[in-house]
Amino acid sequence: MTRTARAAAIGGSAASALALLLSGCATVDSERPAEVPSVEPETITPVPTPEGTAAVVDVSPGGEESSDFVWQGLARAADAGEETYVHAWVRSYAELPNEGEITLTPEFPDSVSITVDAEAVTVSEADPAMRLIEGTFTVEQLGTSAFALTTEDTEPQEDLHPQGPDDAQRCTAEDGNERIQAASQNLAEALQSGDDAAREEMRLQWAAAPAVWWGIQRTAIDLAGSEQEFAGDFLLEACEPYLQG
Length: 245
Fold this sequence. Notes:
The protein is an alpha/beta fold. It has eight helices and seven strands; from the N terminus they run H-H-E-H-E-E-E-E-E-E-H-H-H-H-H.
């Protein structure tokens, strides 16, 4: 089912809530998005920096390496040749086998491709397209965009996980629309200016809600690539499972 068809299938009140998530992010008749909404700042909880190779704890937006920090982190891990903790969400529709390996590749052109043991992959109950790769791995880069992860263990290192509201809380919050919209536009500016510090602060703030963080990143990539003129309906897609009813 296409994104448009999925949106049309949602009930009236939920559809209205989902439409709000798009206001100011997608353009109509070549109008620019609204100004970045003003929201109260949130407390951002820092996480420790692991020794050795930095862990890869993020959500892949799909697409090119320049805007995919999961891809960049795996490339650094492969180059360092050290065991690396990975807690990485990938949006993929590949069928998950009961055993053996699975290759996860986002649906966008020029995306990263990650082959990993199926036992190290968890499927989100709310949104089956969201897949979590978790464990400590040896990372091998097979090509420009292809990686193979050899599992050392699948134990989570929760102290490295960003803290904050989850997807359901983000999507249903009273000020959720304004916060998500502001984050998308602020991240677009960070991507345009190459401000990795601002992007990292946003990861810590949002990555506890991986579907929303995926939607924010995809929206920001579109906005940055179109001089703030266009964004797809990724925020709708991210929040749809939590607003149906």
